Amino acid sequence: MVRASLGVLIWIFVVLVSGVQARLEPRDILMTLGNMEYASWSNIPDGWYEIGSKGFSYTVGLDSSTASQGQSSLYFTCDPVAEYTSWGIRLPTGIGRNGLKRGDRLTLTADVRTGEMNRAKVILVVDALRADGTASARSQVEVSIPNLPWHGVRVDLTVPEDAALVGVSIMAGISAGGRAQFWVDNVRLTNGEQIEVPVRSTRTIPTFTYFRLHPDVYESARRYDKVILAPQNWLYARPLRYYNPNIEVYVHFSAVSTISTQEGQWDPLDYSWVNQNRPQWFLTDSSGVRIQERYYPGAYLVDIGNVELQQRWAERTVRFALRCGFTGVSMDNVVKGFLYDNTSTCSQYASNDAYHEAMTRFLQEVTTRIHQAGLKAGANFGYVWTASEYPYSAWMNYVDMALSENWVRWWSLRLQSYGMVSVPMQIEHLLALDNQGDKLSLIQGRATEAEVEMRRYLYGFALLNYNSRTCFQTANAGYTEIPHYLNDYELAIGTPVERYTLIAGDLSNGGLLRRRFTRGLVVVNTHPSQAFAVTLDDSYIDADGKHYPPGAYNLPAQRALILAKPANHLEITTRQSVTNPKPGEQVVITVNVRNTSAQTLRSIWLRVPVAPNLRYMAGSASYGGMYDPAWRVVAWVIDELPAGASVERSFSVQVE
Q1: Which of 85, 140, 214, 256 is deepest in the core (most CB within 10 A)?
Q2: Which of 317, 233, 289, 179 is nearest to 31 (CA)?
Q3: Of residues 354, 352, 351, 432, the one with CA closest to residue 393
């Protein structure tokens, strides 16, 4: 049984528009790949694959000479066939990805143009499949008239509850002796949700993610400012940049090894090629045995000081990044002591200092080529404070950003455990943020998704001395979870008005640190065991909607308060359609937002959490509201709210 109030919390983020005006447009579940503009690895659009018969002569690919919109269209043609056949291309999307949910009412739209259509037809299909591959639902439209100019077609489908994925297919069905020639463009699959393009951010510190993305590529583009992806995930580079033109997407490559268990196209050197053509590039120990990276079986260290190796590494990474739409290249394991952390002897390099000199030559060569191609270069330095030390001080000259995987709390591969650095070392981390020059610092604290307070502490600590060159993330040991994202990131606390100040305790054993912002306050207790009292002289609100009136509050050890001044110019009220709903009953939740200020407010993000005992009814959000099942939040963007005006948004839930 649910009480009269369902306990809905309302999170409001207000952004006064500056620069380019964003627009609301229907979500494209195909991640904009349906625009038919790109073909990175084949002659068909990224992400699609060919299906159907192949026993005849045919052509399928991008045609830049004709397009409904954009730069190119998808072109199909074939010679006469001996018997009826069907062939085409297909793109599947799993439930839970890119905003696709069970119960969604989908609409596929496309533009079609035909040439010769002799005993042939164009078939556009949307089908839903169960986990075992059997068909759950199917809907399609056919076009068989020859010489049609561009015209729009539409297919509708409701996603069944037993569906595991939805596929979109563009096919030709041709009878014996028939021929086909047609073009398709602007293929889009939508579920009625409205998204803001390009996305904008209110984050004080830019955020990044390493390897993993949110299942919704749009949410990833909205939540993160920098993204580092494994090369196998190249498909996401262009959609991320479409939704967020300011995002930087780096492709991750090892700078020190070639990997025997990885396909050559994902490896700058290609292990098989090196093994066959340049075996002398492998580093060996005193017994002549090839040296593997510790903890990474199959990754073999190579001679990074070899000029020919450097040239091959740079040429292949640059070609890959440009072809797949990345903005930069991120180099892993650019770490002091790396060689002799992995082995006790090395035939090619007698000491770590000699290896450092080789790494310097490697970075000089490859970053020059990366920059000449108009790309950015990043490197994983492991720890943020090292950037001013030898050899990092030299290496920093060559890169645009330094990734530091162990900010305040680290993960040990050797010990397989988390650990907090000492309080004095934490202060060193803070000071290090000012030692990067004009380079970007990507700082990453280690924590699991369940450790919310620890993640908040790591973020709050970063806020104490952040600057315009700081970017933040937390991640668990193996990057196995959906990328962590705190609602605190979107609290509009403004810009700092002071440096961090010690207000209790000391910097050696732990104390209470505070930093004031134009619209907020950050307080961090660095002591490992002692609580401190925090006195607030004004009203604040946290990311969960909790109100903090003026007064004294107890802040436990290793905890942070990240607070913003409440948006007093917005009045929020809620109501529900059923006062005392019973299990199984549906309830409509309505939220009213009123602008009590004297000015028009623009780009209001309205985010409403759905309680654990409630099930969101797919497609029920009014005005194209979005539901994020990972965070269980219904969200809207309200473009404009004049002074004194109000708007209502609603959605339905079922009591469980």
Answers
A1: 256
A2: 233
A3: 432
Give the residue-averaged pLDDT of 467-482: 91
* Measured distance CA(335)–CA(256) in Å, rounded: 10
Distance in angstroms (rounded) separating the CA atoms of residues 100 and 27: 10
Consecutive H or E run containing 328: strand 328-332
Check if the beta carbon of residue 557 is closer than 8 Å to that of residue 580.
no
Structure tokens at 479: 């990057």
May I ask the CATH architecture of the domain 205-490? Alpha-Beta Barrel (3.20)
Residue 19 has pLDDT above 60, yes or no: no
CB 352 within 8 A of CB 336: yes
Cβ atoms of 23 and 598 closer than 8 Å: no
Which DSSP symbol is given to 597? S
For residue 297, how far is the Cα from the chain centroid?
28
Integer-rounded Cα Rg, in Å, for the chain is: 28
Q: Within a 13 Å sphere around the CA of 389, how many CA atoms are in the beta-carbon half?
A: 11
User: How does residue 540 score in pLDDT terms, banded at 50, 70 and 90?
Assistant: very high
The count of residues in the chain is 656
- Averaged pLDDT of the chain: 90
Name which of 450, 474, 448, 449 is nearest 460 in CA terms.
474
Structure tokens at 107: 């609409």
- Which H or E element spans position 220? helix 217-223
> Is 512-564 CATH 3.30.300.10?
no
Checking if the pLDDT of 611 tops 90, the result is: no
> Identical fold at 11-22+568-655 and 512-564?
yes
Cβ(81)–Cβ(174) under 8 Å? yes
Per-residue pLDDT, 465:
92
Q: What is the DSSP letter of 257?
A: E
pLDDT in tens, 615-656: 999 889 999 898 988 778 898 888 889 999 999 999 999 998
Q: What is the DSSP letter of 519?
A: T
| Residue 29 buriedness (CB in 10 A; 0-12 / 13-18 / 19+) | buried
Q: Reduce the DSSP state of residue 200 to 3 states and report it.
A: coil
Location of structure tokens 């070639």: 258
Q: Which of 458, 549, 562 is nearest to 519 (CA)?
A: 562
Q: pTM of the full predicted structure?
A: 0.92
Contact 489, 521 (CB under 8 A): no
What separation, in Å, do the N-terminal and C-terminal C-alpha atoms of the chain show? 9
The domain 11-22+568-655 belongs to what CATH superfamily? Answer: Mu homology domain, subdomain B (2.60.40.1170)
Q: Are 613 and 581 in contact (CB under 8 A)?
A: no
Tell me the residue type at 434: D
Task: Provide the residue type at 424 as one letter.
Answer: P
Phi, psi of 340 (to 5 degrees): -85, 0
CATH number of 29-191: 2.60.120.260
Q: Which two tokens stand for residue 351?
A: 């000491």
Task: To the nearest 10°, report the CA torsion of 496, 497, 499, 504.
Answer: -100
Residue 541 reports pLDDT greater than 70: yes
Cα dihedral 474, 477, 483, 487 in deg (nearest 10): -40
